[in-house]
Fold:
Amino acid sequence: MKARGWAVGVDFGGTSVRLGLIARDGRIRRRRRLVSRELGTPAEFVARLSEAIRALTRAQGFDPSRLAGLCVGAPGPVDSERGVVHELVNVPGWRRVPLAEQLERRLRCRCLVDNDVNLFTLGEWRFGAGRGAGQLIGITLGTGVGGGLVCEGALYRGASGAAGEVGHMLVDPRGRRCGCGQRGCLEGQIGTRAILARGRSALRHRRGILARLARQANGAMSAPLIRRAAYLGDPDARRVWTDVGRWLGLGLANLVHLLNPDRIVIGGGLSHSWRLFAPTAMAVLRERTFPIAAGAVQVVRGRLGDDAGMLGGAALVWGTLQHAAGE
Amino acid sequence: MKARGWAVGVDFGGTSVRLGLIARDGRIRRRRRLVSRELGTPAEFVARLSEAIRALTRAQGFDPSRLAGLCVGAPGPVDSERGVVHELVNVPGWRRVPLAEQLERRLRCRCLVDNDVNLFTLGEWRFGAGRGAGQLIGITLGTGVGGGLVCEGALYRGASGAAGEVGHMLVDPRGRRCGCGQRGCLEGQIGTRAILARGRSALRHRRGILARLARQANGAMSAPLIRRAAYLGDPDARRVWTDVGRWLGLGLANLVHLLNPDRIVIGGGLSHSWRLFAPTAMAVLRERTFPIAAGAVQVVRGRLGDDAGMLGGAALVWGTLQHAAGE
Structure:
């Protein structure tokens, strides 16, 4: 395979930075993983990431300059046209970093930068559970609740690259306080923090399964623990997930009313609890929307797991190449 | 001007059907108006509408077959590809009417059918307050609260033509009952029915300006009456409009979070109270959204009044003509 047949996708997360050397059919041939908090300042990050990318392509026998391109997904708002990271909420020191330009200078290959949830959505559209969808909404459930929109195969970014903030959509004016400072955002209702708070408040029943599991974990509450307790039949733990399903269903209903998508793909760490919240979410969605729109949408779980972002990066590289070549 | 330079736009409303013979620059050269409830069955409607269109073009000296095209905006869900009206909630007897085909057979010109709020939005985009916008959201405020999306000059219709249901977006799970049967839809909170209910409950203060105006109107409550009372300083009437502003602001914030538009155009009968609700709506919008998206959007009042739908119909005729010709 010629070097131009390869792209590198980079998923820059709060915990780790994952890199993949990806073939055009979506196969990830080689991988690397860096620990985010060891990456230092943006300048040090660029140096280490460049090194890792060079190691990745050289192991395959070519120089990074011969890649079709490279795309980094960043967990925050970006200016994808200029390849600038505006800000990373969870990584200090990142403000207006011209990441694409800096990587291009070192690697001499085309570099793109986009939002991580945009790339999750594009990855699932091209290689995963979103294949063939005309109007696709991607949602990631975790500490943050993110969204991306892919319409006829192209990312919809909005007027200033900030579209898809599904997590800050209002679902309850009297709801919980969200990290953004407002009340009743979807993220405030179903993000990991809300789930842990509900789990902790359920510990008042000190004899239940959830309480026993929490004691075994030295009192540490976690989403996997609440999941396990729910599967073991703890009613409070089950209620945590049906609550998630109810609020998620209300959020999905808003999306279906507004955008009438044909598919919604749900990923992120909390999607491991899919079977515990999805039935409630689907029931609420159907109840609150009109048959003409509800009947047109499939809500599915992502298929690519943690690789979706890297694969979306590769998809963006090839998509924009085609665009540039007028294919 | 050659006949092909003309389009006919038809706005099919619950009260009246308005027709315009429209030049390419958006000038409405001739108009007709029919009373909706006198139009009978769909078949009778088609016959009378065809007659009215024929009168319109003949007055200008040509036959309808020489029009660039004709577009009807209908107040309900339509299949715009096939030109079929699915259903009109407020007009009995309309179910799956192949309106475009029936009009084409009589008039021998190209006929399009679309949703009325879609055409409002397209009209404002092409000729009114939405000119030059890349991502435009149109909202009509009245008995119903409707929405339309125009992205890079093209209507976004969604997977089954049902996109843009701004009015049924949830803003308060404990809110008022909406006509759709659900609680707390934007329409349920700020549609005309909600405004009248708030006005009536304000009549408990039997000495206020609102009460006096209502007595003068023989007890009939109306949106213009509440507007007049608010302008005259009645605090309850003012609160009705600031409540509208608050809920509208929350709805706008959701739209800005999700779609990051560069402009939102607001029309419909209730937009006459713009100055009474817009300041509150704008404050809530700014408070609830991120600067990167809030700074990108202008929220403006529609400029075309009741003509927006007709003009949007004409814009659709020319837009699809260009498309067909590959211009």
In short: The first strand of chain B starts at residue 6 and ends at 12.
